Amino acid sequence: MKKNILITGASRGIGAATALLAAKEGYQVGVNYLNNHEAAQKVVTTIQNLGGTAIAIKADVSVREQVAHLFDEFDKRLGPIHALVNNAGILETQKNVVDMEVERLVRVININILSCFLCSQEAIRKMSTRYGGEGGAIVNVSSVAARTGSPNEYVDYAVAKGAIDTFTVGLAKEVATEGIRVNAVRPGFIYTDIHASGGEPGRVDRIKGNVPMKRGGQPEEVAKAILWLLSDAASYSTGTFIDVAGGR
Fold it and tell me: Measured between alpha carbons, how far apart are the two ends of the chain, in Å?
């Protein structure tokens, strides 16, 4: 039986890499995006050219009504959901805490935290054996910033990812008897274009010397950890974390 996976923020970076790897492992893939339809469609087309099944669905995953539409559309076009990857996230321009505007904090919280809550709620309603579902797995994409605090750059982002860590542990315990496992990955300095959003496209190269392995990571390396946590090989793992950070 084909398994179906929904990945938020899957038009680029870690999300796109996860979508491609999931398709290679036999999943039918829902590629969620917000603004860049062309990039999302490119991921879908690549999967289709490899003989897989994928669809692109536009939705702002920080808005409840759009999340409900996202899951309904996914169910209608692919069938029951078996796996969710909460990957959508944003960075804003590097700043110290004292200079951060309230509006910025709201944006960072909504995209990085609220989206994870809303999508997980919908996934549980559809996957949980308590509601007649078949069970499944959720992986949240956190960050090593949750441990380091990201001072002088992105403390707000670090705070949001710290919340994701707490959410992962709490939710895992809540749904452990409902056939759902909930885990997280914490990427370190990964070569994606999210750093350009923070105002420094070359950030990974600047700070990779602080990583014990002395290099940045690739999105595909994070994707492999995500797919392992979703797989039957991780059947006794819930509420756990994999750091993909070169030893940082």
Answer: 39
Residue 63 in tokens: 């808005």
Q: Which of 71, 74, 35 is nearest to 53 (CA)?
A: 74
Amino acid at 227: L
Q: Is 154 a catalytic residue?
A: no
* Tokens matching residue 218: 């690739």
- C-beta separation of 19 from 31 below 8 A: yes
Q: Over the chain (248 residues), what is each successive 10-residue block's mean pLDDT?
A: 93 96 98 96 97 98 97 97 96 93 95 97 98 97 96 95 98 98 96 71 84 93 98 98 94
pTM, two decimal places: 0.95
The phi, psi pair for 233, rounded to 5°, reads -65, -20
Bridge partners (DSSP) of residue 136 are 180
CB atoms within 10 A of CB 248: 18
The catalytic position among 27, 131, 157, 191 is 157
Could you list the residue range(s) of the whole structural domain that residue 29 is in? 3-244
Which residues have a Cβ under 8 Å from the Cβ of 124 and sit 6 or more positions away?
A: 131, 175, 178, 180
Burial class (CB in 10 A: 0-12, 13-18, 19+), 157: buried
Count of the separate structural domains present in the chain: 1
**CA distances in angstroms from 24 to 16, 20, 21, 156, 189, listed in the order given:** 13, 6, 5, 35, 25
